[in-house]
Amino acid sequence: MKCPICNQGTLHNVDDILSDIEGYMFVLRGTRCSSCQEEFINEKEGQQMITIAKKHGIWQQSLKLHRKLSKSARGTVLRIPTDIEKDLDLKGTETVTISKIGNKKIMVEIE
Ligand SMILES: [Zn+2]
Fold it and tell me: How far is the CA of 43 from the centre of ligand 1 (A)?
């Protein structure tokens, strides 16, 4: 099977994909690209991980929400989705720490 990400490598079955949810590590089966190393988690395994994570209360439904950034005069604005706002009991006056993780991720921590 060809890798849908880089279109060069082939996908190999692996059983050592590490997935981190809120600091809990899960080892999952799936496939990994021989070229770009992109990992694809087996759908069944992924569902199982979510079930386990939910059981332990570490799965946030809002883990992956897609939001568009917007521009304001003072910079780029990311709106916090209402459900996260409620979940975290945000008042909108909190100070946050923003850290860059790799090239495509940022983490926002409420102080
Ligand atoms: Zn690839």
Answer: 18
User: Which residue stretches of the chain have pLDDT < 50?
Assistant: 62
First to last CA, the chain: 45
Distances (CA, A) of 107 to 7, 22, 31, 55, 57: 30, 12, 27, 24, 20
Ion ligand 1: protein residues whose beta carbon lies under 5 Å: 3, 5-6, 9, 33, 35-36, 38
Q: What is the pLDDT of residues 43-61, one digit of tens each?
A: 888 888 888 888 877 776 5
Closest CA to 104 of 38, 11, 46: 38
**Extents of the domains making up the chain:** 11-59, 62-110
